[in-house]
């Protein structure tokens, strides 16, 4: 089954054709990052307009890249949430219109399920059950992935998402948007012990996250240094901040896997591109005898291939939700 999938929930317009939920036949991502960078973050109205300008041509050129035509497609899918309402509407309307014109079924997919499914595209051997860690710009989830469409939320962020806090600290350090990759790069040569920062665990046995206290501590440290006229070492701040985030993510992920007796961890979302996180969680998992999966970088950040995979499993196993195809900016898992 070939699914043509569209993703437009934030600042990337993306189209892909995915076969049987596992194989990417062709895909393209048109990033708007250079446009939003000027404003230090995503401007929703500009995002919607860019999606409108890009989407039709991107559908055509993606099919062309795969040597496919509309007659090769079996199902059309688009992200219905969570995300920016105007941005979602563009992709969803394009997808529904296409499905109607081609007389094909339509699936409104969940962006967060997409992030989980990104690992299915990269790792043919990965099957549920496993422990899912989804760390993106808007969400932080620890999940018991029981089946392809059945998840228990073990914990989530109570305030800032992991990616969001990377972006906010990067901004305070004068780094361009999105800041995560810049902090990642600087952290490699910084001292992670240079700044003493809190690791908020929220009590024993809690799998929820809170990063706002850490954010405030870093910002206070930067302000105090500025008031005293002290020069800060950007690499040391990046390394110390990143290590504080990683320590919490790693500790909770390993504890949850052990408590639930799951021998496999699959992490995904933009922050799973972080080199320190890949390395350190990899080492910890190995020590504990756990398997760790994560997608290649291009499938960590937003893309349409992951939506094609999520839509496939939704189409197969979650048919009752297929009629519910309006956008939902706050769609949960
Ligand atoms: O999953 P994603 O593309 O979009 C959302 O669904 O939110 O995640 C984007 C987030 C941004 O906050 C970005 O700074 C972060 O992922 N990110 C990283 C890295 N690459 C992207 N954070 C830390 N280290 C990275 N290498
Ligand atoms: Zn995302």
What does this structure look like?
With 333 residues, the protein is of the alpha/beta class. The protein folds into two domains: 2-115 and 300-318, ATPase, nucleotide binding domain (Nucleotidyltransferase, domain 5), CATH 3.30.420.40; 129-296, ATPase, nucleotide binding domain (Nucleotidyltransferase, domain 5). It has helices at residues 33-37, 44-65, 85-102, 111-122, 162-172, 180-187, 212-227, 234-259, 275-288, 297-300, 305-317; strands at 2-7, 12-19, 23-31, 75-81, 106-110, 130-135, 140-147, 150-156, 264-268, 291-293. The strands form two sheets. The protein has a five-stranded mixed beta sheet, with helices on both faces. Strands 8-7-6-9-10 form a five-stranded mixed beta sheet, sandwiched between helices. α4 (111-122) crosses α11, α5 (162-172) packs antiparallel against α8 (234-259) and α8 runs parallel beside α9. Bound molecules: 5'-O-[(R)-(carboxyoxy)(hydroxy)phosphoryl]adenosine and zinc ion. Zinc ion binds at residues 111, 115, 136, 302.
Strand content: 15-25%
Q: Quickly count the domains.
A: 2
End-to-end distance, in Å? 24 Å
Please give the order of strands in the largest beta sheet: 3-2-1-4-5
What's the tally of helices? 11
The CATH topology of the largest domain corresponds to: Nucleotidyltransferase, domain 5
Task: Please tell me the CATH architecture of the largest domain by its name.
Answer: 2-Layer Sandwich
H/E element order: EEEHHEHEHEEEHHHHEHEHH
